[in-house]
Amino acid sequence: MxxxxxxxxxxxxxxxxxxxxxxxxxxxxxxxxxxxLEKKKVAPVLTKIMDFRNEISHRKNKKLFFRGIGAINxxxxxxxxxxxRKLSVPHHIGKRYYHCIQNFGYKNILExxxxxxxxxxxxxxxxxxxxxxxxxxxxxxxxxxKTNFEALNIQNIAIEEGLFExxxxxxxxxxxxxxMAVMDxxxxxxxxxxxxxxxxPYIHEDSLIVIDDIHxxxxxxxxxxxxxxxKQVSLSLDFxxxxxxxxxxxxxxxxxxxIWVND
Length: 263
Ligand SMILES: C[S@@+](CC[C@H](N)C(=O)[O-])C[C@H]1O[C@@H](n2cnc3c(N)ncnc32)[C@H](O)[C@@H]1O
Hints:
Rossmann fold, 45% helix
């Protein structure tokens, strides 16, 4: 089955089984939906990020080289517009990360997969006191991400350059603990499970791990199911495009929800 066919059938399953806040019996999840993920008030900084995205995607002549690492293994050029539209986190999801960081007060944040740093900008702007560590292996992306951070005068981001296989462990050792991690690169079964297992010794009861593209392929779907059934995961939220996992110890039983957010 092709990835596209798999994604469409997974979307139908999600649409038929997902709940909105109106049918949510968990107080924690209800609060998360109403007060964080569906927050309607738009902070001026989020409008500025959107303006910046529009501005860079209009730089028509700028192309970056992808030498084929991770799940996409062909070498090719991509325009900034394509990268901003297709590889970077969509604005409504960046906004959710931003509000989660503000609501839970996360300070030690890891992003696996910087690309040109669009997702990283939401993480960094949510809390200027936070330390954002972001991992990327593509030299052209790293250079563009650095230019973007400079243009927005962002000081709280450290880019760890190189393949995740070489940088993840050392970065985690440097961080000592992880409040929030966004896994957004190398979307394959084995790598997703490997990165998740590497993260586990560094998370705590209040940590959040976000896994992107959980229904992008059969392999990612399999990785997601394995993660939500892991004994340390107490609560999982499947938003179709991505999934959140929490590790609270005092929950009596594991809870798993498929959710539809009204952004
Ligand atoms: C989907 S993009 C990240 C998007 C970014 N989080 C955002 O929202 O703007 C994934 C990135 O991971 C990088 N990547 C994939 N596999 C990698 C690996 N094994 N080591 C290092 N970088 C990798 C790719 O070069 C790509 O830039």
